Amino acid sequence: QAKLSGKSRFHLFDTEQDRSLRSQHETIERMHQALKNNELCLYYQPKVNMRTSEVIGAEALLRWQHPERGLLAPGAFIGLVENTPLMLDIGRWVMDSALAKMNEWLEQGVRVPLSINISAIELRDPNFPEHLAAALKSWPDLDPAMLELEVLETAALGDLGQIARVLDSCRQLGVSIAIDDFGTGYSSLTYFKRLPAKVVKIDQSFVMGILRDPADLAILDGIVRLADALDRQLIAEGVETFEHAEMLLRIGCDLAQGYGVARPMPADDFLPWRAQWRAPANWRNLRTVSRR
Ligand code: C2E
Ligand code: MG
Ligand code: MG
Ligand code: MG
């Protein structure tokens, strides 16, 4: 990463690279403020069992309520801070906020397991497990198993052994680990085997593909069997339509997250949504094709 201070700021010629660096610099500055000014918030997207109608938990997704630009999804800002130390502060804020919300809901008598997304830089931070332990300690009523860490397959690129060790320490604290966007990286099968993840989240690109691409369907079917054999829990992301749900249920993937169930929503909407949700009758009636 190029240096942003000093004379590079005073170039006469405003090259495109200069502009993009300056805009990254500005975004980082602006996000520091956002964190201080409480402009960040978490939205929650339900995860459900399509067969039983059970709401099994939710994923906490970062949003930035920008005073001028409105509500921003991570795509609009996270790429610019992902590899900077600011991401560590944001990650901690996310962790603390999610734990606080779980505790608040638990006090209202509702147990909602939550997952949070962990960026590569957090995983490379040797202090990460310690911070996690401290954060969990401050909520004695919460069972650590209610927290799940979603880790991108690509976050482990290059240093699988090191990342696996960090995740192992986290797992020893009782939290659950999920591989996020599974199938988009390069060494999926190795990750499947070596990362201490109980949960595997199938990337939405596969789910989109299963209706029109027999190869995607075959791959997904294989992943379902693999997950069975290796005792991993599978959840499909990007379930947008009834047809997606139907196909997933047919091949034996009952757990889902996606717009077809619900879009990510503000915290205050979650418990009311959860109380009324029922899988459509035709989802409930689908039975897994018996394979054995
Ligand atoms: P992700 O972890 O794979 O999260 C799923 C993303 O897919 C979310 O986008 C969600 O809104 C979107 N999505 C859910 N269902 C559907 C669907 O049916 N169709 C389509 N097309 N999209 C769907 P979002 O909230 O914009 O987040 C994007 C990514 O940003 C996340 O992908 C995650 O990698 C990252 N992210 C979000 N929050 C955090 C965070 O707190 N920390 C870190 N490090 N990364 C985060
Ligand atoms: Mg995720
Ligand atoms: Mg994902
Ligand atoms: Mg993603």
TrEMBL record:
Protein localization: Membrane
Entire protein: shown range: 765 to 1056 of 1163
Segments forming domain EAL: 24-278
Name of the protein in question: EAL domain-containing protein
Lineage of the species this protein comes from: Bacteria, Pseudomonadati, Pseudomonadota, Gammaproteobacteria, Pseudomonadales
